[in-house]
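User: Hey, my collaborator sent me this sequence without any context and asked if I could get a structure. I don't really work with proteins. Can you help?
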Amino acid sequence: MDCIDDGRVLYIDREWVWNSEKECKQLADSKYADELQKWMTPNAQVIVDPSAASFKVELANRCIWHIDADNEVLEGIKLMSSMFALGLLKINKRCTTTISQIGNYCWGDKAIKRGEEKPLKVDDHTVDPVRYICSTKIPAWRLAA
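Assistant: No problem. I've predicted the 3D structure and written it out in structure-token form, which is a compact way to encode the shape of the chain:
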């Protein structure tokens, strides 16, 4: 994901997607890092899933500066929803996979019956980075303004 932050609105501008099911193979961390280096803009801030330990090592070995994402799923989904509703988050129409997956955050019926707010995690690989960007980059005061 690549975003533009104009100080008010966060624009998800570009996406890079590797579909291992479609391609019938998983990429190694080194190959993901190769692709990231080709794709990323100079001085980009790379936000990484905190559980991706081996990928973070690969990035560090390449001197690619990165930070852990805030990976609180429920709070991140609520933040994204609020930002969309307030017009503070927009997705470029060329981000077709992200747009197609944005509705895939849905609540599990079993969890709802137990009184839990727990999203199902299905086909959300491009939406997770949007959540990471929102949760990691957006100060709370921007939503109150």
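In plain terms: Helices lie at 20-23, 29-39, 53-61, 73-85, 96-101, 109-113, 127-137, 141-144. You can pass these tokens on to your collaborator as they are.
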